[in-house]
Write a structure and sequence with these properties.
Helix 2 packs across helix 6. This protein has a 5-stranded mixed beta sheet with strand order 1-2-5-3-4. It is globular, with a radius of gyration of 16 Å. The chain is an alpha/beta fold. The protein contains 9 helices and 5 strands; from the N terminus they run H-E-H-H-H-E-H-H-E-H-E-E-H-H.
């Protein structure tokens, strides 16, 4: 499910209410490494599976729609995050060279193992940019980056597209707080959101 929601211009007739407003401030009682996995720090490809199979960092209060998860930072933060910071995007580009596609092999293998256990697994692929350029252009660019990773996972590693959903966030969530060009901000992140949206996973 390759879909795109512009959080700022979403046509909801003013009815949108962030479900995260019903939750208390998130408390992370684990180390950063247990909450956010940086691909640059991965030494064993099995680390991706060990990370993705972990449960959310807090009890899920209710089930959410995929759009709610995409649009609510507070709800998304319940799910751990993989930062694919080994995947290099050129400035202003969303293309993934063939030499870079193989960097997705570890996370693709982890997804495949999880899907063997539960074919309903759902993964959110987030696209991000640095703060250079117009916000609207960066939002569109970040969406294309997320979609490029989803397409690579499907085309190169046969991850079913129905288990992937994408969202671009533009420059809204900078990893490095700078208005200058910054490679670390031109990134894609992956979260396993099954327990937030799928009744079967949430019941376990």
């Amino acid at each position: 499910m390759l879909s795109y929601v512009d959080e700022r211009y979403y046509d909801d007739d003013g009815d949108w209410r962030d479900p995260g407003d019903d939750l208390p401030p998130i408390r992370i009682d684990i180390s950063r490494e247990e909450y956010i996995l940086d691909s640059e720090e991965v030494e064993d490809p099995d680390d991706y599976y060990a990370f993705l199979e972990q449960p959310p960092v807090e009890r899920v209060q209710r089930l959410y729609s995929i759009d709610e998860v995409k649009r609510s930072a507070r709800v998304r933060d319940i799910a751990r995050r993989i930062d694919l910071d080994t995947l290099n995007f050129e400035f202003g580009s969303a293309s993934i060279p063939e030499t870079e596609v193989q960097k997705l092999e570890g996370v693709a293998s982890a997804m495949e193992k999880l899907l063997e256990k539960n074919p309903a697994e759902t993964f959110l692929i987030e696209g991000h940019t640095d703060a250079v350029g117009r916000p609207e252009a960066n939002l569109a660019l970040s969406d294309r980056r997320a979609e490029a990773v989803a397409e690579a996972l499907t085309n190169a590693f046969s991850i079913p597209p129905e288990n992937l959903t994408t969202q671009g966030y533009g420059e809204e969530y900078l990893k490095v707080d700078t208005p200058e060009p910054e490679r670390e901000n031109r990134r894609v992140a992956i979260r396993r959101i099954t327990s937030l949206v799928a009744p079967v996973a949430s019941a376990n």
